[in-house]
Specification:
Blueprint: E1 4-5, H1 17-29, H2 40-60, E2 68-71, H3 74-85, E3 91-95, H4 100-113, E4 116-120, H5 130-134, E5 141-147, H6 159-169, E6 173-176, E7 195-199, E8 211-215, H7 253-269, H8 271-290, E9 295-297, E10 309-314, H9 319-330, E11 332-333, E12 335-337, H10 342-348, E13 355-359, H11 366-384
Parallel strand pairs: 1-11, 3-4, 3-5, 5-6, 6-7
Antiparallel strand pairs: 2-8, 7-8, 9-10, 10-13, 12-13
This protein binds pyridoxal-5'-phosphate.
Pyridoxal-5'-phosphate binds at residues 10, 73-75, 99, 101, 147, 151, 176, 178-179, 199, 211.
Length: 385
Amino acid sequence: MEITYLDNAASTWPKPTAVKQKMVECLEEYAANPGRGGHQLALRASKELFYTRAKIAKLFHVKNPNDIVFTLNATAALNLGIRGLLKPGDHVITTTLEHNSVRRPLEFLKKEIGVEISYVKPNSEYIFELESFRKEFRFNTALVVVSHASNLIGALAPVEEIGRLCKEKGVPFMVDASQSAGVFPIDVEKMNIQLLAFPGHKGLYGPQGTGGLYIHPELEISPIMVGGTGSHSEAIEQPLTRPDRYESGTQNTVGIVGLGAGVDFVLQTGVDQIREKEFSLTYELMSRLEQLEGVTLYGQSKEVERAAVVAFSIDGLDASEAAFILDHEYGIAVRSGYHCTPLGHETIGTLDQGVVRASFGYFNKMDDVKVLVKAIQEIMEKLKQ
Ligand SMILES: Cc1ncc(COP(=O)(O)O)c(C=O)c1O
C-alpha cells in the first residue's frame, strides 16, 4: 500500500536526498570522534559539525555559531534552557498551549525547587493578547517560555511582541520553535530571543536524534550534563567556553552532518516558499473538511496563518480509532490522541476525546489532501450503515 505521510509535525518524512547522502558520506569517509584527537578524520568531523552550526546560525540570525549547542531533540534543548536557568523561588510565565516538553520540566522544577508558574491563556479566537502576559510579571519572574506555533492547532504566538515586552521587563525570553523552525522566519536579535530550542528532525529536515539550543552570549545558564568535552582535559571543572560547556560526550556526528544538509535544503528552498506551500495544503484540507457534515475542525479559521497542522474529529468515531482505520485501511499516517499537550486539549475543549491531527511538510502534494478527504468521506459513509 502506498503511504500518504501526514505526520510531519512529529518528524518530517521523507528527507531531502542530500541528507541521506551526507550521512552516508560521513559514515564512509570521516565518522571519527569530533574534538577527540588531532588526526585528520577527527578534524574533518569537527569541521563538519561547525559547518552545520554555521548554517543554523545563518537561518536564525545568530552572530556566533558557537552560541548554538547541539542536543538530541527539542526536548533536550528545552530541558537544558529551563533547568539550566531557573533557581529556587523563580517565577516563570508560559502558556496553556505548551507541549509537555515545556510543561513537564516546569512542573518538575515546581515540585523539586519551588519554581512558580503562570499559564497564560489565549482568547476565544486562540490569539494571545500581550496584556495577558504583561499582567503576569512579578518581582521574581526569571523566564518567559512560549511555543512559537502550537503542535495541536498550529496557532502562532506573537513572539516579536512578547520579545519586546521581555526586553522592557529585563526577563529572558525562551521560544520553543519545534513547529516553526524552518517554516517561519526566526531572527533571535529582532525577536529578542535569549533561548531558542529547536528540533532537527522536523522543519529542518534532519534525521531524528538531532536538535539544538541557541543561548544568548550574555545569558549564563548551568550545564545540566557535564563530562568529557575533548577540551581542557587537565581541568576537573567543565570548560566555560561554548559550545563545549554544554556539549559533553561524543556528539551525533552522522546525524548533525545530515542536519546540515537539511538546513541547506531549507536555506536554498527558502522559508517563505516552504511556508506558502504548506499553508496552501493546510488551507485546502480545512476548506474541504469544513464542508463535511460530521467533521469538527479545531483552532483558528482557515484564513489565519498557522503552522501546517489540522486538528479535527469525526462525529461518532474515537480519534484513535479514526487514525487506526486511516493507517490500516488507507495507508494514511496521521497522529491521534492527546499530542503531548493535555493543557492544550483543555484549552480547545477536547480533553475527553483527543483529536486527529494531519500535518504537512514540503514534500506533500495536493493529491495527499484529496486522498485523506476521500478516505474520511468513505469512513463516514460506513459509519452511517
Ligand atoms: C511544540 C513542541 N515542543 C516540543 C516538542 C518535542 O520535540 P522533540 O520530539 O524533538 O523532543 C514537540 C514535538 O512534537 C512539539 O511539537
